[in-house]
Amino acid sequence: MARLTEIRWHARGGQGAKTAATFLAEAAIEDGKYSQGFPDYGPERMGAPMRGFTRISDQPIRLHCAIENPDVVIVLDDTLLDSVNVCEGLPESGVLIINTKKEAAAIRSKLDWTGKKLFLVNASEIALEEMGRPIPNTPMLGALAKVSQTLSLEVLLKDIEKKFSKKFKKQIVEANLRAIKRAYEEVKPA
């Protein structure tokens, strides 16, 4: 039976959710899977809430719409928890990964979700320390690889290195790979 994994990304414009959703889809394709990665914008401006979507399957994907009932939700900006129901449509068995420096109790108090699979990682801090900019998208790919088993860390690192090497200097590529590895190691259940 075909397994379709649907991932919904929540972020603000400029945080790289569109890029991460697309990179993940491309990495899945490189790994021999079928995949889609695309954004959904409200007002197209820096800082506005936006969503990205990724589907990954071992069979062709016939759906071409937003993801309403994701298996995984990734939140790149925890301030969205005050204004967006990021858990909408997420089943109790779903996985929620949030970029935050806050404690688990503070995050859980903002969620309209009773599911058990909540994971936290300070991807912005990792990005700042490793890449010099607090852009959380690539570290969140590492956190996703750890908790969802959607794609292996090795496949993800190989694809990111291949793609980034075509347009960035070696030190930028290495910084992104370190950030992905750190988030993979530092993501924790809450």
UniProtKB/TrEMBL annotation:
SUPFAM superfamilies listed in its UniProt record: Pyruvate-ferredoxin oxidoreductase, PFOR, domain III
Domain Pyruvate/ketoisovalerate oxidoreductase catalytic: 13-185
InterPro entries named among the record's database cross-references: Oxidoreductase_gamma_subunit, PorC_KorC, Pyrv/ketoisovalerate_OxRed_cat, Pyrv_flavodox_OxRed_cen
Single GO MF annotation: oxidoreductase activity, acting on the aldehyde or oxo group of donors, iron-sulfur protein as acceptor
Residue ranges crossing the lipid bilayer per the database entry: none
UniProt keywords, alphabetically: Oxidoreductase, Pyruvate
Protein name in UniProt: Pyruvate synthase
Species annotation: Candidatus Abyssobacteria bacterium SURF_17
